[in-house]
Amino acid sequence: MLPLPTRRAVLAAGACLPILRFPEARAAAPADRVGAFTVTPLRDGLFPLEPSMIPGADSEAGRALLAQAGLPPSGPSPEPVNAFLIRRGAWHGLLDAGCGTVFGPGFDRVTAALAAEGLRPDQIETVWLTHLHADHAGGLLTGDGRARFAHAELVLQEREAAYWSDAGARSRAPSAMGLFFDTAQAVLAAYAGRVRRVSGTAELAPGVSFLPLPGHTPGHAGVLIEDGPERLLIWGDILHSRLLQVPHPDWTVIWDADPAEAIATRRRIFDRAASEGLAVTGMHLATRCRIERAGAGYELVSAAP
Ligand SMILES: [Zn+2]
């Protein structure tokens, strides 16, 4: 496994983002309708993804994809970090919470995005988590480590909470993952007494259910929103780079806890979404898409409502 980038390297890369060429770099997409649900992406910031974070990109095929996109071989490509607000009438829930202050300036915009939707953090009653990585759970904490959502119940997969609480798992993980373990444990401690652990395809609310997608982390899960014939899968971190991992689903990202399982899961959900014509979006995708088979890989096509 490659070393994780330091915060300084991330910020330095961010300073030279080729911003304007990429739809990912623009403002968050508008809200989607899924039957009676409104699903609003909340843009926390932009993450400069370097090809070295996806080792498969260090190849002729990877360099060709980067060149076609107008990127130098070392990238970076700007990738969004999203949370989502899911509403139906007066009911609402938050899915993930962005980075908070964990990765320094440039992120922590979820609270402002919620304010633009007329909501304060203390009005959020439920936060669902796709997984406990810091770019999804860091925003659950204020800069001084308190629970940002004073009245929210936190809902996540049992396996996810167990993994990040496991001293053995931490000792086996690369040392650079220490920040991720620290953040996950701080979140679980700050929300102690109001963490609900569920297993499998748990219903989170009528029409909203978890879909386990393990591999990136043991309890990584997407959320499927259904109302009648309309469906949207928010697939969490099934991919970090649409440019690289859609045509090459076997290319893992260095943060995968179990790369082989992450590949198998990505292939399985790509295949299902293609077969079912399922609309998808994610924490590191700019817009709602559909996925189609293309040669040995896949391609994303716009599924704007
Ligand atoms: Zn992520």
Automatic annotation (TrEMBL):
State the family named in the UniProt similarity comment for this chain: Belongs to the metallo-beta-lactamase superfamily.
Please name the source species.
Methylorubrum extorquens DSM 13060
UniProt-recorded Gene Ontology molecular function terms: hydrolase activity; metal ion binding
**Which UniProt keywords are listed?**
Hydrolase, Metal-binding, Zinc
Which named protein is this?
A: Beta-lactamase domain protein
What residue stretches are annotated with the Metallo-beta-lactamase domain? 80-283
InterPro entries, sorted = MBL_superfamily_lactonases, Metallo-B-lactamas, RibonucZ/Hydroxyglut_hydro
- Classification via PANTHER family: QUORUM-QUENCHING LACTONASE YTNP-RELATED (PTHR42978:SF6), QUORUM-QUENCHING LACTONASE YTNP-RELATED-RELATED (PTHR42978)
